[in-house]
UniProtKB/TrEMBL annotation:
It holds the Pfam family GntR. PANTHER family: MANNOSYL-D-GLYCERATE TRANSPORT/METABOLISM SYSTEM REPRESSOR MNGR-RELATED, MANNOSYL-D-GLYCERATE TRANSPORT_METABOLISM SYSTEM REPRESSOR MNGR-RELATED. Keywords: DNA-binding, Transcription, Transcription regulation. The lineage of its organism: Bacteria, Pseudomonadati, Pseudomonadota, Alphaproteobacteria, Hyphomicrobiales. This is GntR family transcriptional regulator. Residues 11-79 form the HTH gntR-type domain. GO terms for biological process: negative regulation of DNA-templated transcription. GO terms for molecular function: DNA binding; DNA-binding transcription factor activity. PROSITE patterns: HTH_GNTR. It comes from the Bacteria. InterPro entries: Bact_HTH_transcr_reg, Chorismate_lyase_/UTRA_dom_sf, Tscrpt_reg_HTH_GntR, UTRA, WH-like_DNA-bd_sf, WH_DNA-bd_sf. Residues 241-261 are annotated as: Disordered.
Length: 261
């Protein structure tokens, strides 16, 4: 094995280089009609060996992101990554409904379990109280977009079936069960794919993901859903619209619409 293949961290060098080149392809750094730099040039640019570069290029080829043309070189494939699904931080119900309409769902688990301390605190129920836990992936055109783990109070969870959740929107099912979705508190950060999430999302262990946690509340501010979601950043993006605050300070910004998530 190439001595610098693993590198100093938990993510191998070839995979880190793969993520960098993939992002550059997504950003349009390599026009479709211009060949990519050669292995030697890439190895010098990124400080890795040619063996590492070669392994990275094999991964990009396997994923359909580049193609080798005999006698001409290696080229980025135009449009190989497609257009990510966009999530706006406004219009909670409409955004979630639109997201559901553009993706298909696969239900991996559906069960009733005792609430952990974190789940109980978030849903404002007693620790150990019954909650419904579901794990789903959403895909677009066969490509996984997100991994969703939801916890719902048992009384609400029993208003719909496993089959209904496997084919519909959870928000719509909660509303059908009598809850009126009013607001949500969300946190967005980044996480690395682990041995559980990586195969479900079709990525390598250690690949960066968008991580979102959301507590959905009804009109009385009661929590009705706790969501932990992981999104592939090549398939999903979050946008913010802001304007100057109006106070005269050059450093103050405000949302053009009040964020609901």
């Amino acid at each position: 094995m190439d001595r610098d293949d693993q590198g100093a961290g938990p993510v191998p060098l070839y995979h880190r280089l793969y993520l960098v080149l993939r992002q550059q392809i997504e950003d349009g750094r390599f026009p479709a009609e211009v060949p990519l730099p050669g292995e030697l040039e890439i190895s010098k640019q990124h400080g890795v060996s040619r063996i590492t570069v070669r392994r990275t290029m094999e991964m990009l080829t396997a994923d359909g992101l580049i193609e080798r043309r005999r006698g001409r070189g290696t080229f980025a494939r135009s449009g190989a990554l497609g257009t990510p699904i966009t999530g706006q931080l406004s219009g909670l119900a409409d955004n979630l409904s639109s997201y559901a309409e553009h993706t298909t769902v696969t239900l991996h688990s559906f069960e009733y379990i005792p609430a952990s301390p974190i789940v109980a605190a978030t849903l404002e129920i007693e620790e150990g109280g019954s909650v419904q836990k579901a794990v789903r992936t959403r895909s677009r055109e066969g490509v996984p977009v997100s991994l969703l783990t939801t916890h719902v109070p048992a009384a609400l969870g029993r208003t719909y079936t496993r089959e209904e959740l496997a084919s519909g929107s959870l928000i719509r099912l909660l509303e059908r069960g009598g809850a009126r979705v009013d607001s949500a508190d969300s946190t967005i950060t980044a996480k690395l794919a682990d041995a559980f999430s990586a195969p479900l999302l079709g990525v390598q262990v250690g690949q960066p993901l968008i991580a979102l946690t959301r507590t959905v509340r009804d009109e009385k501010r009661r929590p009705i859903e706790y969501l932990s979601a992981l999104y592939r950043p090549d398939q999903y993006e979050v946008r913010l619209s802001m304007s100057r605050d109006g106070s005269g300070s050059p450093n103050l910004w405000r949302y053009q619409q009040k964020p609901e998530v």
